[in-house]
Amino acid sequence: MDAAGEAAIRATCASVVRVSPVNLVLSGLLRRLLTGERPTGANGGPPAWTPPAPLGPLPALADPAALPPAEGAVLAMLGTTVAGQVFVPGLYRMLASWPAFLAHVATVLRPHLDDTATRAAGQQLLAAVDAEIPRVFATLPSLPARPAMPPDAEFAEVLAALDTYRKTSPEMVVFGRMLGDALPGH
């Protein structure tokens, strides 16, 4: 891999490490709304926030069905099942731009997807995010008495997707950090 590839992978990993906790907050807020909680808007609105500088363009998300069979199989190794379909987190789909690197990642990381240290690190992140959700929820504006909700037939699947995200997103932070730190010149 050349220096440009290493820089792109490093930026991809850094982006996932930055964005995944924000997405976890969003999924926590959605879960509260879906289970009937309503914000009061009592805290006067969200705090002032200045976003960090962008990390640069990210590689496109690979479509697993469009990949050559061998590359698709490697990608599927890193997936999980949601509603009967394989879901491959975005980090791996972006890393598919470098098939040999992704194959190495799949070989090295796959055994760690369910190990104790990985789970503990992910659970620690999830607990920290969950601890912030009530404070953020309290800053949301109040909603109409009957906000739009998913159709009854899809409600359980939406909650299941949020639950899966609570597993895969902390993994993406842990593995994104590990991969970025493992690249030369870090």
Any descriptors?
single chain; about 190 residues; mainly alpha; two-stranded antiparallel ribbon; 2 strands; about 60% helix; globular
Report a brief summary of the structure.
With 186 residues, this protein is mainly α.
Strands in their spatial order, largest beta sheet: 1-2
Q: Which class best fits the helix and strand makeup?
A: mainly alpha
Oligomer classification = single chain
Distance between the terminal alpha carbons, to the nearest Å? 15 Å
What's the mean pLDDT score? Answer: 86
By DSSP (H or I, 4+ residues per run), the number of helices equals: 6
Order of helices and strands: HHEEHHHH
Cα shape: globular
Structure, described:
The chain has about 190 residues and is mainly α. Helix content is about 60%, strand content about 5%. The protein is built from 6 helices and 2 strands. It has helices spanning about 5-35, 70-75, 90-95, 100-110, 115-140, 150-180, and strands at about 80, 85. Strands 1-2 form a two-stranded antiparallel ribbon. Helix 1 crosses helix 5 and helix 1 (about 5-35) runs antiparallel to helix 6 (about 150-180). The longest helix has about 30 residues, at about 5-35.
